[in-house]
Amino acid sequence: xxxxAKLHIMKSKNKDKIYLSVCKxxxxxxxxxxxxxxxxxxxxxxxxxNALDILKQN
Length: 58
Description:
alpha+beta
């Protein structure tokens, strides 16, 4: 069964760091559901400077 839900990368600020997670919408005006946490943007950019661009492509 293939899901038609569109996944989004959400940024949320925790203290002075930005946390990335993959979310799907629950419908208009109903918010979103977090599917998986990816980690802090600063830590991901240490591994690959283009981490956010790579995640947006897929």
